[in-house]
């Protein structure tokens, strides 16, 4: 993310076209004429824009702060929620909270006041923290995608190395990398003064690059490191997961047709997971090394077992379909939230004049809001859509009013699709029954 955009909301008055490479959220006018008759209308329009912008920013800020704080509290308080995937989700929640706190107020307030009132030191600090939060958020999304792929498509191999200690090392590495690669921001961020249309002096936090080629190189690196490469990794990982889940759906559909053969013990299947299944099913007929589980005939028990397996199969089949849809939503929202800004920044790096004329004003304001929206949709997608997390959330806050220790632990063992919606963390204790060949 180019954090230059957030600093330009305090930029020039409406009759000044800034050529320094910064965005202005005012409608650009390259020439100043006599607009006296249009001033009241323009003032009313500007006030309406500010009102709408304040409302949208306030809504997204509230959802982001509350949602990510809830995730941090729930995952910190509940020991049973401390899985490998949830460890990455905790890092994601912290980075998204940082994005909401250090991006949105320092974007909105200068935009409304037309003045960066926080001083030169905060100009550098805020720019640095903005870059760090965006980087960590993106790296966390990639880590979650890789962890899910390994857990679902390579369950046995992933159990060897997917532990919380490994997750802690990965998270520490992502934070260190984010702090290092964003060092240029406090160096190039400067507070400068400008004269407003009412002859008063205001300030803006600007990014000053020594050479145009340096800015172009930086924008290209950001485009690759924080958007293109992470986007490709997420598409590949979630695509392979969806393919494996789709195979499971096909197997379940075929399994229903072969019910009679299953009863006679002619065919069987191994399920990647029991109570915490992720929907990765393997057909024994196609993969001979899988653990074979044959239905054992006994008086009165086969019928009940078959009914139970039928109900479980239906639940897992629907769960797989929901997970596939959720994975598609994750990828679509990632590109929807971030692609406009990275494309706009790259465009500006190579053709500042046309980019500023085309995107200044409402377009860049909308693009920035899309980026901030990711901080409030991530909690909804990765946590609040998960039954286990919702139960843990209710248990956490209900325990404040009444004892609920037993109810909490009983609720955490229910609902078979829980890990599917969260991503199926495959640590040592996650899976009890797995296939010996579960690769994609």
UniProtKB/TrEMBL annotation:
Keywords associated with the record:
G-protein coupled receptor, Membrane, Receptor, Transducer, Transmembrane, Transmembrane helix
Topology in the membrane?
A: Multi-pass membrane protein
Q: Name one Pfam family in it.
A: 7tm_1
| Transmembrane regions | 54-77, 89-113, 125-146, 167-188, 218-241, 323-342, 362-384
Protein location: Membrane
Q: Which residues form the G-protein coupled receptors family 1 profile domain?
A: 67-382
The UniProt entry, under SMART domains, shows: 7TM_GPCR_Srsx (SM01381)
Q: Which InterPro entries match?
A: GPCR_Rhodpsn (IPR000276), GPCR_Rhodpsn_7TM (IPR017452)
Q: Would you tell me the Gene Ontology cellular component terms?
A: plasma membrane
Any GO MF annotation of the entry: neuropeptide receptor activity
Return the protein name: Cholecystokinin receptor-like
Q: Which organism is it from?
A: Solea senegalensis
